[in-house]
């Protein structure tokens, strides 16, 4: 298994590099790096969307929550959040693309700045995007867990090698290579999704009731609709309401919502959404594999060693599958992580370069457009290198000192970001003549409420939920900022544009 894993990973690396070189040859400036210079089919971009939305969280981390907490986690991660996210994706994509293509926006920050005619607000979102580093860390930790077990190498060595490889080729490939690699990764993930979901067929020999009885025998809480063993699934608000609010807002992440800007024609949008949503729905269901893992490890231990939540699915793959099937599953798991990681590195580095560094140093880059473009691309590569260093440092800390799961660390950062982005995007697409003070206030309120609730572990009235659950903190932040924004918009009225 170890030797075969090494061979497979090396082949995978070579294939990725071929596509990176192919994409890099067509990059001449930051626009090419950010949104590509190739006419991609809606099928390819749709698969890239599904691959980007489905990270290591869906394939590697979240099944661990299902293994630990059962049906309550299934309801949250396989149904409530995905349903809201799919509906939101359709609604938001068309409006975002309309404005984004009109002003030639390359990043979320540029979209904010141009929509509200405020460079300062755009800069604010560029700085806020640094919170997405927490999501990068989640993915790197997830892939490290899988590769460490598969290749029989210590986690720190895998962590450093992984970051150097992926961040290294993302310095050159950008959107051109990312769509190629994401398409391949999505196809692999589809095959693996069916393998993982199908691996639990034996548990249905006595029907659904048989499955429920098996889980009940291990722990009755696994089949209940609430679970007070976790600060994530204690009641209806935490399990469904908060997750649906998060699902609605989750598409407001740059590596997701900006995918539509890769399409060269508006007529491709419907095809793109259809391909993306069908594929994404299958991916979201993969978390149910956590139930099969719990049945395989009733006491959540292997050979007397207690399993960590983040390591459950890796242990399950090694135990459950024969070598060659196991290799394919491992390939699918790392593809799930790498596909999103590529999108995050590309979007975050573009934002830092184009929306933070260039505005601050523009006068020093010269007036020659060709030389200026080369300098900006070089700066972008330096940014990616610095992101790599930060990622290694923070990821190692999460490997040895997680709070239950690296997912909690990532959710705190990512949820705060799209809590602040939700109202500006919503108003920017569906309201006319909005005074900029409204979205700016909404963003500040969302950030303040989120972090106050999370670090203060503040409770929600009529619920067991507290801000210790990042989903609850973000949901309350989004609801609060939405109410305040709409009141302000009604009171202040519009502004002539």
Could you characterize the architecture of this molecule?
The chain has 497 residues and is mostly helical. It has a single domain (2-402), classed as Sodium/glucose cotransporter (Up-down Bundle), CATH 1.20.1730.10. It has 21 helices and 2 strands. Strand 1 (301-302) and strand 2 (305-306) form a beta hairpin. The longest helix is centred in the last third of the chain and has 39 residues, at 323-361. The protein is globular and about 70 Å long. The mean pLDDT is 86.
Task: Give the key terms.
497 residues, single chain, two-stranded antiparallel ribbon, mainly alpha, 21 helices, Sodium/glucose cotransporter, 1% strand, globular
């Amino acid at each position: 298994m170890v030797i075969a894993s090494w061979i497979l990973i090396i082949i995978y690396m070579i294939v990725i590099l071929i596509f990176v070189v192919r994409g890099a040859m067509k990059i001449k400036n930051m626009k090419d790096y950010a949104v590509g210079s190739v006419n991609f089919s809606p099928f390819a971009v749709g698969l890239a969307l599904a691959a980007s939305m489905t990270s290591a969280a869906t394939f590697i981390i979240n099944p661990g929550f299902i293994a630990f907490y059962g049906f309550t986690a299934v309801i949250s991660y396989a149904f409530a959040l995905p349903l809201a996210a799919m509906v939101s994706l359709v609604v938001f994509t068309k409006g975002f693309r309309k404005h984004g293509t009109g002003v030639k926006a390359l990043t979320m920050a540029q979209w904010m700045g141009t929509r509200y005619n405020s460079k300062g607000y755009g800069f604010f979102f560029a700085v806020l995007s640094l919170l997405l580093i927490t999501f990068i860390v989640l993915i790197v930790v997830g892939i490290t867990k899988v590769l460490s077990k598969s290749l029989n190498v210590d986690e720190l060595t895998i962590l450093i090698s992984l970051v150097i490889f992926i961040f290294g080729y993302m310095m050159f490939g950008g959107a051109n290579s990312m769509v190629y690699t994401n398409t391949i990764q999505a196809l692999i993930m589809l095959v693996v999704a069916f393998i993982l979901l199908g691996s639990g067929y034996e548990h249905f020999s006595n029907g659904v009731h048989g499955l429920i009885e098996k889980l009940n025998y291990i722990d009755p809480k696994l089949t209940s609709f609430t679970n007070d063993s976790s600060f994530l699934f204690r009641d209806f608000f935490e399990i469904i309401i908060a997750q649906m609010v998060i699902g609605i807002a989750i598409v407001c992440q740059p590596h997701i919502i900006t995918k539509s800007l890769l399409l060269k024609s508006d007529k491709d949008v419907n095809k793109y959404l259809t391909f993306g949503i069908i594929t994404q729905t299958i991916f979201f269901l993969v978390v149910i594999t956590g139930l099969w893992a719990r049945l395989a490890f009733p006491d959540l231990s292997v050979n007397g060693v207690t399993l960590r939540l983040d390591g459950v699915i890796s242990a399950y793959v090694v135990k459950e599958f024969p070598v060659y099937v196991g290799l394919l599953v491992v390939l699918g798991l790392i593809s799930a992580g790498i596909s999103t990681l590529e999108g995050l590195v590309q979007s975050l580095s573009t934002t830092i370069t184009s929306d933070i560094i260039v505005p601050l140093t523009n006068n020093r880059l010269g007036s020659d457009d060709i030389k200026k473009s080369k300098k900006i691309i070089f700066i972008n590569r330096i940014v990616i290198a610095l992101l790599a260093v930060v990622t290694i440092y923070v990821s190692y800390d999460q490997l040895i000192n997680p709070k239950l799961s690296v997912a909690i660390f990532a959710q705190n950062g990512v949820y705060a970001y799209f809590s602040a982005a939700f109202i500006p995007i919503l108003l920017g697409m569906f309201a006319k003549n909005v005074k900029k003070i409204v979205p700016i206030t909404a963003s500040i309120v969302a950030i303040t409420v989120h972090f106050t609730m999370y670090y203060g572990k503040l409770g929600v009235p009529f619920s067991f939920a507290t801000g210790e659950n990042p989903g609850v903190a973000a949901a309350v932040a989004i609801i609060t900022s939405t109410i305040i924004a709409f009141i302000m918009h009604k009171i202040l009225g519009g502004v002539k544009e």
